[in-house]
Design goal:
Layout (H helix, E strand, L loop, with lengths): L2 E5 L4 H12 L3 E6 L2 H15 L3 E5 L5 H11 L8 E4 L14 H29 L2 E6 L9 H20 L5 E6 L3 E2 L3 H4 L12 E2 L1 H12 L7 E2 L15 H7 E2 L34
Helix pairs in contact: 1-2, 1-7, 3-4, 4-5
Length: 282
């Protein structure tokens, strides 16, 4: 039986991935800050699906938290076959309205943690000749969205580059780029969503199913999720031929109006930073 480690597992897309993978018979390592919620989630998934669910409390906004998860990923005695880097959060406010501390915390969670955890997992997987990594990005990677969009663009570029370098090793990497997904993300970050039409919203469980399917695809570096299109039908931010090749659609196409929406498209059930630090999952 294979084992998947999910950061940000207790809400949003992370919880959807956990439900999907448990239903498919995978053992899980659930990562978040809130130990109580983690234990409740682990118990529910074990009782419902008969899988083993390990709890790992970690704050990915800290070096200690990242190291804790990296050590678990590198454990050869209890290997992880699939890593899902899902943890993240959104800041309310425009550039210069957000504190530098919160901006740097976002880069820590969205970029540094993804780099270090992917490296820990991929190193062990390459030794075994098999494994997969799903890095949750966003359609915000393809539109100007300040530090948030820039961090998600980094996730996409990093994942594509790593996938290329690991081609033929048996390790597959994928960047997941969903749009507006119904999770706690916007409410917790204090973002209004009244201006976002209903057809643009995706269901977290459907995105989780699509991401799980994509992680087993024969292509590396694919981007499941609704493509961002301009009004003329061209994909924004990248050549249309690349978008057609890389995208696996999980829902309605997101057209140019996504760039005008005030809220950030997000997907991973993350939270705005609070004095306790950013959760590996809410």
């Amino acid at each position: 039986m294979t084992t998947a480690l999910i950061t940000g597992s207790t809400a949003g897309l992370g919880a959807a991935f956990a439900r999907r993978l448990a239903a498919d018979g995978h053992n899980l390592v659930l990562v978040a800050r809130d130990t109580k919620r983690l234990r409740e989630q682990a118990t529910e998934l074990h009782d419902r699906h008969g899988i083993e669910a390990e709890v790992l409390t970690a704050d990915l906004a800290t070096d200690k938290g990242i190291e804790t998860v990296a050590d678990r990923l590198a454990d050869r005695r209890s290997p992880v076959d699939l890593l899902i880097n899902n943890a993240g959060f959104g800041n309310k406010g425009r550039y210069l309205d957000v504190s530098m501390a919160d901006e740097l915390k976002m880069l820590k969670v969205h970029c540094e943690a993804v780099l270090r955890l992917t490296s820990a997992a991929a190193g062990a997987m390459r030794e075994r000749g098999r494994g997969g990594v799903v890095n949750v990005a966003s359609v915000a990677a393809f539109v100007p969205r300040g530090t948030y969009g820039a961090s998600k663009a980094w996730v996409v570029q990093f994942t594509q580059g790593a996938a290329k370098d690991l081609a033929g090793s048996g390790v597959r990497l994928m960047a997941l780029c969903p749009g507006f997904v119904r999770t706690e993300f916007h409410e917790r970050a204090g973002m209004g969503t009244d201006n976002i039409p209903g057809w643009m919203w995706l269901d977290a469980d459907k995105v989780g199913r699509g991401g799980s399917r994509g992680s087993g695809a024969r292509q590396d570096g694919v981007h499941p999720g609704p493509p961002v299109q301009g009004a003329d039908g061209r994909h924004q931010g990248r050549p249309a031929r690349d978008a057609r090749r890389d995208h696996i659609q999980n829902g309605p196409q997101v057209r140019a109006s996504v760039g005008r929406a005030r809220a950030q498209p997000e997907d991973n059930g993350a939270v705005r930073p609070d004095p306790r630090g950013t959760e590996a999952a809410p």
